[in-house]
Amino acid sequence: MRTFSFEFFPPKDEIAAVDFGINIGRLLRLSPSFVTVTYGAGGSSCERTFALVDYLHNKVGLKTVAHYSCVEPPKEKIKKDLATLHAIGIDRLMLLRGDPQQGTDRFQAPLDGFSHASELIAFVRSLFGGAFTIGGGAYPEKHPEAESAEEDLKYLKRKVDAGCDFLITQFFFDNSRYFDFVTRARVAGINCPIIPGILPITHYNQLARFIRISGACIPKDFLYDLEANKTTPHKIAQIGSDYAIAQCRDLLMSGAPGIHFYTLNKSRATVEIFESLLSA
Question: Which of 32, 124, 216, 253 has its CA 20 to 30 A from that of 196?
Answer without folding.
Answer: 124
